[in-house]
Specification:
Length: 407
C-alpha cells in the first residue's frame, strides 16, 4: 500500500493544475490517469492553438444555476492569477479579439509545460491506471487501482465530463463519485452542432457565412449571436450555434420547441434592402434572381433563398413583384430552422450537467457531503461558453482544490 497526502484521479487540465498547486505547497501528490498520457484533450483545444482563457471573464459567460459560486471561484483564482501560473510553467500568452492563447500558438506546448511542471514538482504520475475500488477511512481514503493500492489523506476527482470521450473523459469515474454520496445532474453535450430538418441546410451544405442568429424557445426570443454560421446538410454549426447549444439542448430535452432564425444580411436594413433590390433589378432585369442575390450572399445561400421564397431557379429579376420581393426578404433576413436534435458527446467540446455546485464549497472545492474529497473541472455542473471559459474553469477549480487539499 502506497501512502500519499493527496491522490488525484484524472490528469486533464483540472487534475494537473491541482497536482502542481498542491505539490508546490509541499504535499506528496499521486496523479492517476487511465489513459496512456496526461492532458490528451488539451492537444485538440482551440483547433490546436489552445484558447486558454478570455479577457472578458465572469459568471455571465457560464451556464449555471449558481452564478455566485462561479463568481467566487473566478475571484479566488482569477484570469490574471491563471496567466501568472502559466508564466510559472514557462508559458507566455497573447490576446486576439479577447481570446487568450499561448505565444507559441501550439496547444502541445501547454501540455508539455504541464508535464515538465508535474515532474519538477515531484508529482508521481501513474498512467494507464484505473480505479478499481474506493473506501473512505478514518485517516482518508483507500483507493484500489490496477497498479496497486493507495492510502490518501485527501482525494481529488477531476475526471472531466463526457465530451470527447476518445480523450479519456468516458464517465467511468462517476461510479466512484456517486459511491461517496454525490448526485450527478443529467449530463448533456454542449458546444456542439444542432440538427435541423430544414431543406435550406441541405441546399447550402458546406457554406460558411456571417449571419445574425436568434434562438427562440416556445416562440420567445432567448438570445442572439452574430458570427460565422456553418451550414451543414444535417443542420447548423459554427461559433454562434455553439454558443446557443447548451441552453438549446437542455430546453429541447425538456420538450420545448426550439427554433433558430438567421439574418444573412445583418448589415442591410429592410428599407436599404428594398432600395438595393429595386436598383439591382432595374439595372439587370434579365439576370436570374439567384444570380443577382449572389452579389450579396454566397451563391448557395442565394439559390436556397430563391427556393425558400417559392420561386423557380430560372426566374429573372424583371418577373419579380412586390409580394415576391417580400418573400425574398424573409428568406434572407428571417430564415427559420427548426431544431430536431443535436450531435453526440463524440463531437461536443464540453458537458452541461454533472455534480451539483450546491454539494461543493466554492472557496475550496471540498465536498460538503464527504469531507476530504474535492471535485474540480468539467465534472462540476457549470459549463462555459466558447472562448476559453471551460479551460479557465478547469484551471480555477483545479488550483483551488489543490491549494485546499494541501493545507
Ligand atoms: C475539441 C475540443 C476543443 C476545445 N477547445 C477549448 C478551448 O480552446 N478553450 C477552452 O476553454 N476549452 C476548450 N475545450 C474544453 C476543455 O478542453 C475542457 O473543458 C477541459 O479540458 C476540461 O478539463 P478537465 O480536466 O475537467 O477534464 P478533461 O480535460 O476531460 O480531463 C479529464 C482527465 O481524466 C481522465 N479520467 C477520466 N476518467 C478517469 C478514471 N476513471 N480514472 C482515471 N482517469 C480518468 C481522462 O482520461 C482525462 O485525462 C475543448 C474541448 C474539445 C473536446
Amino acid at each position: 500500500m502506497r501512502s500519499t497526502d493527496i491522490l488525484i484521479v484524472g490528469a486533464g487540465p483540472a487534475g494537473m493544475t491541482a497536482a502542481i498547486s498542491a505539490a508546490r505547497q509541499g504535499a506528496r501528490v499521486c496523479l492517476v490517469e487511465h489513459g496512456p498520457e496526461p492532458g490528451k484533450k488539451i492537444l485538440s483545444t482551440g483547433n490546436g492553438h489552445c484558447n486558454l482563457t478570455n479577457v472578458q471573464m465572469g459568471p455571465d459567460f457560464y451556464h449555471t444555476s449558481d452564478p455566485a459560486f462561479v463568481q467566487t471561484v473566478l475571484e479566488l483564482f482569477s484570469r490574471d492569477q491563471t496567466l501568472g501560473f502559466f508564466r510559472s510553467l514557462g508559458i507566455w500568452t497573447f490576446e486576439k479579439n479577447g481570446f487568450v492563447y499561448p505565444r507559441s500558438e501550439a496547444a502541445k506546448t501547454v501540455r508539455e509545460a504541464f508535464c515538465l511542471a508535474l515532474s519538477e514538482a515531484k508529482v508521481s504520475l501513474f498512467t494507464e491506471t484505473n480505479v478499481t475500488g474506493l473506501r473512505p477511512e478514518k485517516r482518508g481514503f483507500q483507493v484500489r487501482t490496477d497498479h496497486g493500492d493507495f492510502l490518501a489523506r485527501k482525494l481529488i476527482f477531476a475526471p472531466g465530463g463526457l465530451a470527447a470521450p476518445k480523450t479519456g473523459s468516458d464517465g467511468s469515474a462517476y461510479i466512484w463519485i456517486k459511491s461517496l454520496g454525490h448526485r450527478v445532474d443529467q449530463m448533456l453535450p454542449a458546444l456542439v452542432q444542432l440538427h435541423s430538418d430544414s431543406t435550406f441546410c441541405r441546399e447550402t451544405d458546406g457554406v460558411r457565412v456571417q449571419a445574425q442568429l436568434k434562438l427562440w424557445v416556445d416562440g420567445k426570443k432567448w438570445e442572439s449571436q452574430t458570427g460565422e454560421l456553418q451550414l451543414v446538410s444535417y443542420g447548423l454549426s459554427g461559433f454562434p450555434i455553439f454558443q446557443f447549444s447548451s441552453p438549446a439542448i437542455r430546453l429541447f430535452e425538456e420538450g420545448k420547441q426550439i427554433r433558430i432564425t438567421a439574418d444573412f444580411l445583418p448589415w442591410l436594413g429592410e428599407d436599404e434592402w428594398k432600395t438595393w433590390w429595386q436598383t439591382a433589378a432595374l439595372a439587370f432585369p434579365q439576370r436570374t434572381v439567384a444570380g443577382l442575390l449572389s452579389g450579396l450572399v454566397p451563391p448557395k445561400v442565394a439559390a436556397a433563398a430563391v427556393t425558400a421564397a417559392g420561386l423557380s431557379n430560372s426566374v429573372t429579376a424583371a418577373r419579380i413583384g412586390k409580394e415576391e420581393e417580400n418573400l425574398l426578404l424573409n428568406a434572407l433576413k428571417r430564415q427559420e430552422f427548426r431544431m430536431t436534435g443535436y450531435n453526440s458527446f463524440d463531437r461536443a467540446q464540453t458537458t452541461s450537467g454533472g455534480v451539483p455546485l450546491s454539494e461543493v464549497s466554492p472557496q475550496t472545492m471540498e465536498s460538503k457531503i464527504c469531507p476530504g474529497l474535492y471535485l474540480a473541472g468539467e465534472c462540476l455542473n457549470a459549463d462555459g461558453r466558447c472562448g476559453g471559459y471551460n479551460l479557465q474553469w478547469a484551471f480555477s477549480t483545479g488550483y483551488l482544490a489543490g491549494q485546499a487539499a494541501a493545507r
